[in-house]
DNA sequence: ATTTTGCGAAACCAATTGGTTGCGCGTATA
DNA sequence: TATACGCGCAACCAATTGGTTTCGCAAAAT
């Protein structure tokens, strides 16, 4: 199936995982210990996150550490850009309205 | 079921709908005409978007116009904030690294 | 060499999803 | 009043989801 970042962050557990490994790379087991779920379930989430390149793995002895591809997160920011323009425009309009009201008083 | 904005924007059709009505409020039929889907399917998407307060409706004669609650979009931006801090820090670190390399040359 | 451990893949289940079709209600238009 | 249209709801289907349990593999520890 087609996966993208927005699918990936739709799940609260995955958002938590992202926030977790953003601070420090971790193994699937370590991640699972932070939530009330099993290692396999975490593994499934990690797979989804991997599929859309939001995380990458790093071998360390016999353990595999997962870490966040922070660059990929910027794509969400990029998508938000179009709306940021809108709400900034609205703010300016509100600002102008207030200025006009003040002037006419 | 529990719904949130991240669930809402997970679907590409819904993101398209959001972008569409961000520019101009529209009726379900008008929205459906922009995509290769039926009015009922659009209606379902609108329901989901409504459930998490991303859009609101406005009666206009016998038609109902849907418009974006741009303020709600800021919540995504708010969530991104924690990661923005990270990538800005990394950028600074890269900047410092480059400066050090230059200095040592 | 044997045991233990961590890991991912596969099979399976219950719940949710997007989509369709069909129905009934309310509002304009004739 | 009668007709046509736009809308949302309910029922249904195929596909996907998150979760569990089970299994086999490979690396470390004994």
Automatic annotation (TrEMBL), chains A, B:
CDD domains: HTH_ARSR. It comes from the Bacteria. SMART domains: HTH_ARSR. Pfam families: HTH_20. GO terms for molecular function: DNA binding; DNA-binding transcription factor activity. Residues 1-88 form the HTH arsR-type domain. Coiled coil: none annotated. Keywords: DNA-binding. InterPro entries: ArsR-like_HTH, HTH_ArsR_DNA-bd_dom, WH-like_DNA-bd_sf, WH_DNA-bd_sf. This is DNA-binding transcriptional ArsR family regulator. It comes from Chitinophaga skermanii.
